[in-house]
Amino acid sequence: MSLPDTHIRAVTQRAVTAVRDTALTRGEAARTGRGTMAQLSGFRTGDALASAILTAAAPRRTALCDHRVQHALPDAAPRRAHAA
Length: 84
Prior knowledge:
The protein contains four helices and no strands.
């Protein structure tokens, strides 16, 4: 699949704008940015490549994320005691 350079740049710019948007939480911004990048071929399976590009664009707002990280996060979350 061949896409025009202008389309690739426009999609990438929307994704970068999303991850830099401080009105969104960091998680929302990262999900929006990665979801936007999924419009491009090569970004439809997994988040690793999109997160690497977006981390370069906004290193204080995003982080590298791949399937190993996504599977490990639920285990790393702090446990909360239930209120009695």
